[in-house]
Amino acid sequence: MSFRFTNSVAKNVLGLAPKVATQSLAVVPEKAKMNVLAKLLSLTLSEQIKFGELDFLQSKWVAISVMDIGLHFEISFNDELLLRPLTQADVTFTANVPELLLVAAGKEDPDTLFFQRKLKIEGDTELGLEVKNLLLGIELESLPKPARLTIEKLALTLQTLQGYSSEQPQASA
């Protein structure tokens, strides 16, 4: 009896979380979302900015589409990170929150997700590979402690829920 409850609860949480996030994000004005994202990304990429590792993004736009929560934006770099709503990007990365979270936590390889069609990269392939390599070079340990701990805890929770939701009930003897 407890197995079905755990399996059912895990599936419900995994299905409900994106819906709640989508509804929550829908009430936040676009400008506020862009400002918060810009600050978070600037903080996350501060080392890469400091060492000029984002210079390849000058005059280039990378779109990020997080489909399951309806979050879409473009990012570029010109002495600072620039964010805007979707318009016309040079390359587009499309995925859902679970996949992005597991990549950020170092629990999943983006190439594996790409071949499983859980991560899509469309447009300028060379630019897409540069962005992917930049992101793979970000050490989780280099992130500010609150961001690192949040990513680690969310990834662990996600993996636990995915494990429970995919288990099959055992036949009783």
UniProtKB/TrEMBL annotation:
- Which Gene3D superfamilies does the record associate with it? SCP2 sterol-binding domain
Q: Does the keyword Repeat apply?
A: no
| Record field: transmembrane | none
Keywords from UniProt, A to Z, are: Ubiquinone biosynthesis
Pfam families, A to Z: SCP2
- Where the record annotates domain SCP2, the positions are 48-135
Q: Which family does it belong to?
A: Belongs to the UbiT family.
**Name this polypeptide is given:** Ubiquinone biosynthesis accessory factor UbiT
Record the organism.
Shewanella japonica
Show the taxonomic lineage. Bacteria, Pseudomonadati, Pseudomonadota, Gammaproteobacteria, Alteromonadales
